[in-house]
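In practice, a research group might receive sequence data for several interacting partners and want a quick structural hypothesis before committing to experiments. The following worked case mirrors that situation: the sequences arrive first, and a predicted assembly follows.
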Amino acid sequence: GAVVSQHPSWVICKSGTSVKIECRSLDFQATTMFWYRQFPKQSLMLMATSNEGSKATYEQGVEKDKFLINHASLTLSTLTVTSAHPEDSSFYICSAAPRDNEQFFGPGTRLTVL
Amino acid sequence: GQSLEQPSEVTAVEGAIVQINCTYQTSGFYGLSWYQQHDGGAPTFLSYNALDGLEETGRFSSFLSRSDSYGYLLLQELQMKDSASYFCAVKGGFQKLVFGTGTRLLVSP
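A structural hypothesis for the assembly, expressed as C-alpha cells:
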C-alpha cells in the first residue's frame, strides 16, 4: 500500500511554455501533499505544501505565481510550472503521508526546458 | 535558519559496516528520518527516530541524540545494491520534512 504516482515521468518543453505535473495517491486519501525540487547531485528542497480544498503554502523564496498548485481532490495534486525557463529544469517530486512519521514519494518528473 | 549536515561521500566494501552521520540545526523538531535514493529514483523511507536511542530494522539501524542534535544511520553487511544517496530529514510542524545535504555511498566488491 501507500503508492504515489506522478505523470509525466519526464517532459521536455520550450522556454516560455507551461507544464503541468500530476501527483496521485493510488490507494489512500491525502489531505496534504508536498512538492519538492531536486537539482542534480543536490538535496530535496521543499517547494510547497498542497492542501486539499485550500490554498497551497509556499516555502520562502518559491514564487507562487510561477509554480501553481491545485489540490483538486483527496487523491490528486497538480503542479504547473508557468512560463518555464531553462533554470526551471529540475527533478520535481511529490509526496504524501498516509500515516504519521512516514512520507511516501512519487517517482518524480524530470523537466527539461530548452 | 535550518541546516542538516552530512558527509558528502562515503566508500566501503561489500560486507562491511558503515555509519552516516547527520547533525542538524532546526527551528522545530519532532523526529529524524532517513531516506535512500538511487540515481534517478524516488526517495524511499528507511527509518524514523522520535526519541533518543537506537532503532533497528534489519541491516539498517538509526540512532538519535536530541541533546546533541545528532543522529546516524548504520548500514551492516553492505551489499552492492546499497550504493545510493542517503538523506537525513528532520520532521517539523505540519509534517514538513527538511532534508540534509545527502551522502553518496559507494559500495565496491
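Before designing any experiment, note the following. Chain B is about 0% helix and 60% strand. Chain B has a mean pLDDT of 94.
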